[in-house]
Automatic annotation (TrEMBL):
<protein>
    <submittedName>
        <fullName>SAM-dependent methyltransferase</fullName>
    </submittedName>
</protein>
<dbReference type="GO" id="GO:0032259">
    <property type="term" value="P:methylation"/>
</dbReference>
<keyword id="KW-0808">Transferase</keyword>
<dbReference type="InterPro" id="IPR006764">
    <property type="entry name" value="SAM_dep_MeTrfase_SAV2177_type"/>
</dbReference>
<keyword id="KW-0489">Methyltransferase</keyword>
<dbReference type="InterPro" id="IPR029063">
    <property type="entry name" value="SAM-dependent_MTases_sf"/>
</dbReference>
<dbReference type="Pfam" id="PF04672">
    <property type="entry name" value="Methyltransf_19"/>
</dbReference>
<dbReference type="GO" id="GO:0008168">
    <property type="term" value="F:methyltransferase activity"/>
</dbReference>
């Protein structure tokens, strides 16, 4: 049984923190364990606004997916490192505007599949694949991915809130490039990541690396490099609240608002 009275699914290691479960803690979810809550507790000592940051990331996910469906005409999505299902998931946002939109969630934590099954049981246009996004070759050859994704048509490639969990020596640039090489012109890359744009970034990065083992804060210039020669969608790569906000922002951005940056770009 878990520490909250639910059985732990097979293959789930409850003795080590999980990125997906730690994010669930920050979002106020219940699909996590004591080790995950302890890790988040350490992070909150440095940046108490982390729940706000997570909320900003979910909000830009909704705005970005809505843009991709309604303005860019995208009808199929690969959500890489998707994390646990929560509110306003990619398929819910996409299918609200386009019921025929197809979504493949990919995450290496088996708890994502365990909890995703119930959510997706009656949704034939959405699936969850347990795989490591750092292995693009395997994912791009996966039959379940090919069941929903037609690689001759534009694809929305989502790396939302996950690139900062890839170390430099794992060559995240090449990982992103591999997915973009597999999709045709008209496809889009949607990326958000921790950004070293505030004084506390170095200390928070150190905390992430020591307690979770991942959490790289890259500069805006480094993050821009992931988009390569893609055509940036306005307003470009910016702090999350500044990407096509639903209401004007008329104040100086807080640490929570600066902690992550995001953007969308189109493959020519």
């Amino acid at each position: 049984m878990t520490d909250q009275g639910r059985p732990a699914s097979a293959g789930i290691d409850t003795s080590k923190p999980s990125i997906a479960r730690a994010y669930d803690v920050v979002l106020g979810g219940k699909d996590n364990f004591a080790i995950d809550r302890a890790v988040v507790g350490e992070m909150l000592k440095i940046v108490p606004q982390l729940p706000e940051v997570a909320a900003y990331n979910r909000q830009i996910l909704s705005r970005g997916v809505r843009y991709l469906v309604e303005e860019a005409g995208i009808r199929q999505f690969m959500d890489l490192g998707s994390g646990l299902p929560t509110r306003e998931n990619t398929h819910q946002v996409a299918q609200r505007s386009a019921p025929d939109a197809r979504v493949v969630y990919i995450d290496n934590d088996p708890i994502v599949l365990a909890h995703g099954r119930a959510l997706l049981v009656e949704n034939e246009n959405t699936t969850v694949v347990t795989a490591d996004l750092r292995d693009p070759e395997s994912i791009l050859a996966n039959p379940e991915v090919h069941r929903l994704i037609d690689f001759s048509q534009p694809v929305g490639v989502l790396l939302v809130g996950i690139l900062h969990h890839l170390h430099d020596d794992e060559d995240p640039q090449s990982v992103a490039e591999a997915y973009l090489a597999a999709v045709p012109s008209g496809s889009h890359l949607f990326m958000t990541s921790f950004c070293a744009s505030f004084p506390e970034a170095a200390e928070l990065e150190e905390t992430y690396l020591s307690v979770l083992g991942t959490g790289r804060f890259r500069t805006l210039e480094e993050l821009q490099g992931f988009f390569g020669d893609l055509e940036m969608v306005e307003p470009g790569l910016v702090p999350l609240p500044q990407w096509r906000p639903e209401s004007p922002i008329d104040h100086d951005l807080t640490v929570a608002e600066l902690l992550m940056a995001g953007g969308i770009a189109r493959k020519r």
